[in-house]
């Protein structure tokens, strides 16, 4: 689907900050409120904008730190449906946060979040490895998130400019 | 000091202190100030550029460079000027790398001004132009532009201030503080007068990267103007590299070689590590510049429309990152407005009169601040205006 320049502008602004007030968004794109609301509606209906979500640093929330694992999964693709069917079987589990089809040494990259390592391990051994098409899994636990989806988690770079300058 | 003798030079003593200074001291002493008074990008220099500088230091590139700057950098500058603005300069003889565009301006003026020569300065203007002309022994002649004309020079106006001593015209497009960009046709009209009166133009194009509505026209790209122009630019604004102090000038070699002579005696060369960083900026920085431009344009649209809604009339500035709204509707002078706004609502703006008499009745607001800060500044200004 080809977006107009203004539609693209709206998507780009929202991708960085989805909580921007409608009137501010309209001004930034030099559009009226109505035009902006119409574009938003269209983008949402077309699923160009899929979801508005917050990026949360759960490490800061006591009792909710959790663990994240990236799992390399090798599978046997099925005739007719290729990798899609097995991907679907995997992404339907709610603890699975992402599933990507990859080029290279393995086929699917699966990201799982759980409350503890044993919870993730249990998922891998009981749910994932036991799927018919799955040949092997390699689990990598994430130790620390520095940057996620373009956002730096800890304090970013500060404004060090002097207050008034020519 | 003894008796009445002063050791200070008359020229230096006569220079007016910068009006921005007083404001800076006041704003810097306060807490919780939202500053729209900053004349520099809110972006930090791209990591790839910083990384290139670090690498040059690791490899031990810490000695002087050629006086005119690293040849590789001059070649990149020549390629950049040709690619972006369709102007051709020979890297070996027509380009010099300077310590900021400020030094390039200083060199340009000292190269062309004889004692008493007049240099036309289009106002409102960057605060340094007048003093630099005076330091070079010249006489700055202000040419006032008006808000009603969106601060664009009216060509016939130029002729009204030309005398037998007029040597040059200083242009700045996009302009600091008004953000005004001159279109090709407007530059052509100026060029006709420049030619007719045999003038030279110092074209300060430091904000050339930051234009938002149409392609930029560089003054030396106008027919017959290359031989009459000293093009001054640099990395500070477009590439978010203010602290690196790196600029350049391009001019016909007869002029540039004299600039280089002065540069040899006064500066030797621009900082080496900054020059290596600048090579990286020109080679691979275009994508980052585009992203910054987009961000400025969006903030400009938001901020200028919000100012107009507050009743502070403001034209849509085509470039730089300044809005220059009129505050005449408030009945306050620029200084009163800026001072009261700072003291009562802790928003720092720069009073327009520090950029020349024609800036009276206006304030300069930089929109190179985060959107959240701009939103908060608008909120505070609304509160301030409602009390007047």
Automatic annotation (TrEMBL), chain A:
Q: Entry's Pfam families?
A: AsnC_trans_reg, HTH_24
Q: HTH asnC-type domain: from which residue to which, for each copy?
A: 3-65
The domain of life for this entry's organism is: Bacteria
Q: Say if the entry is tagged with keyword DNA-binding.
A: yes
Question: In Gene Ontology terms, what is one molecular function of this protein?
Answer: sequence-specific DNA binding
SMART domains xrefs? HTH_ASNC
Instruction: List each coiled-coil range.
Output: none
Keywords for the protein's UniProt record, in alphabetical order:
DNA-binding, Transcription, Transcription regulation
Q: Which PANTHER family does the annotation name? A: HTH-TYPE TRANSCRIPTIONAL REGULATOR PTR2 (PTHR43413:SF7), TRANSCRIPTIONAL REGULATOR, ASNC FAMILY (PTHR43413)
Q: What is this protein called?
A: DNA-binding Lrp family transcriptional regulator
From TrEMBL, chain B:
Q: Which species? A: Thermaerobacillus caldiproteolyticus
EC number from the UniProt entry: 2.6.1.-
Sorted alphabetically, which keywords does the UniProt record give?
Aminotransferase, Pyridoxal phosphate, Transferase
- What is the official name of this protein in its record? Aminotransferase
Q: Which domain of life does the UniProt lineage start with?
A: Bacteria
Query: For this chain's UniProt record, which GO biological process terms are given?
Result: amino acid metabolic process
PANTHER family under this entry? ASPARTATE AMINOTRANSFERASE (PTHR46383), ASPARTATE AMINOTRANSFERASE-RELATED (PTHR46383:SF3)
Q: Kindly name one Pfam family recorded for this protein.
A: Aminotran_1_2
Q: Which cofactor does it need?
A: pyridoxal 5'-phosphate
């Amino acid at each position: 689907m080809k977006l107009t320049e203004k539609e693209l502008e709206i998507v780009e602004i929202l991708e960085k900050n989805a909580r921007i007030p409608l009137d501010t968004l309209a001004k930034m794109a030099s559009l009226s409120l109505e035009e902006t609301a119409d574009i938003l509606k269209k983008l949402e209906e077309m699923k160009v904008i899929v979801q508005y979500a917050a990026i949360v640093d759960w490490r800061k929330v006591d009792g909710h730190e959790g663990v994240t694992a990236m799992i390399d999964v090798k599978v046997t693709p099925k005739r007719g449906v290729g990798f899609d069917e097995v991907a679907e079987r995997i992404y339907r589990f709610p603890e699975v946060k992402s599933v990507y089809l990859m080029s290279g040494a393995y086929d699917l990259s699966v990201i799982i979040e759980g409350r503890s390592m044993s919870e993730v391990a249990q998922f891998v051994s009981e749910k994932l490895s036991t799927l018919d098409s799955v040949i092997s899994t390699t689990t990598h636990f994430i130790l620390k998130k520095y940057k996620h989806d373009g956002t730096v988690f800890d304090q970013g770079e500060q404004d060090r400019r002097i207050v008034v300058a020519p | 000091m003894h008796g009445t003798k002063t050791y200070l030079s008359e020229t230096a003593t006569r220079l007016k202190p910068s009006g921005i200074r007083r404001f800076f001291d006041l704003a810097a002493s306060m807490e919780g100030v939202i500053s729209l008074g900053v004349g520099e990008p809110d972006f930090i220099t791209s990591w790839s550029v910083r990384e290139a500088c670090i690498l040059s230091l690791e490899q031990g590139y810490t000695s002087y460079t050629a006086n005119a700057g690293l040849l590789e950098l001059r070649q990149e500058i020549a390629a950049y000027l040709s690619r972006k603005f369709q102007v051709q300069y020979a890297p070996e003889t027509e380009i010099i790398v300077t310590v900021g565009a400020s030094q390039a301006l200083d060199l340009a003026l000292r190269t062309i001004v004889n004692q008493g020569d007049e240099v036309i300065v289009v106002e409102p203007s960057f605060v340094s132009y007048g003093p630099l002309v005076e330091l070079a022994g010249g006489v700055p002649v202000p040419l006032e532009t008006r808000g009603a004309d969106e601060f664009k020079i009216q060509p016939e106006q130029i002729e009204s201030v030309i005398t037998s001593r007029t040597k040059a015209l200083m242009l700045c497009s996009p302009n600091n503080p008004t953000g005004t960009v001159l279109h090709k046709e407007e530059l052509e009209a100026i060029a006709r007068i420049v030619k007719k009166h045999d003038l030279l133009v110092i074209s300060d194009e430091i904000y050339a990267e930051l234009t938002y509505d149409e392609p930029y026209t560089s003054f030396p790209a106008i027919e017959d103007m290359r031989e009459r122009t000293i093009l001054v630019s640099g990395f500070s604004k477009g590439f978010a590299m203010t602290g690196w102090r790196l600029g350049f000038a391009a001019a016909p070699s007869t002029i540039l070689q004299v600039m280089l002579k002065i540069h040899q005696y006064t500066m030797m060369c621009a900082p080496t590590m900054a020059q290596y960083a600048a090579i990286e900026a020109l080679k691979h920085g275009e994508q980052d510049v585009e992203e910054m431009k987009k961000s400025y344009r969006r903030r400009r649209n938001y901020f200028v429309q919000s100012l107009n809604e507050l009743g502070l009339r403001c034209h849509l500035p085509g470039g730089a990152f300044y809005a220059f709204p009129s505050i005449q509707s408030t009945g306050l002078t620029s200084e009163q407005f800026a001072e009261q706004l700072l003291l009562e609502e802790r928003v720092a703006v720069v009073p327009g009169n520090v950029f020349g008499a024609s800036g009276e009745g206006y304030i300069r607001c930089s929109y190179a601040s985060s959107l959240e800060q701009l939103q908060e500044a608008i909120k505070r200004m609304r509160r301030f205006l409602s009390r007047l």
